[in-house]
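User: Sequence for Nitrogen fixation NifU-like protein below. Tokens please.
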Amino acid sequence: MSFNNPLDTLYRQVIMDHYKNPRNRGVLDDENVEINMNNPTCGDRVHLTMKVEDGKIVDAKFEGEGCSISMSSASMMTQAIKGKTIEEALMLSQIFSDMMRGKAYDDSVDLGDIEALQGVSKFPARIKCATLAWKAMEKGLHSQQ
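Assistant: Structure tokens for Nitrogen fixation NifU-like protein:
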């Protein structure tokens, strides 16, 4: 990735912070949603556990192996979905997907650290890395509906 301006540098720092200091790393003991997914192209893998009660994501954790993009994205995603309803989390996932594909997205939603991944859309080979944990979350939440 080319980081030529201060915003790119800041985004790179946010991604590396989530990679080196992942939030919500681990496995929930009392999960009711468990998903394993991998990206065979590059070897990234994620194991996502979530606790969903009354249509709301009470907790989420992940384990896995992969590049800084995939692991940072998993960290950011678990932070973003905690406390959200299934519908809100799926809407956030759609916004993230649109952002990754370089499409217009609802920028009235505060994406927080997730916005740091916006530059990944310029690198098609890395988009699957960024979206792996999000796809796992979608698959898991659809099983709850």
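The chain has a mean pLDDT of 93.
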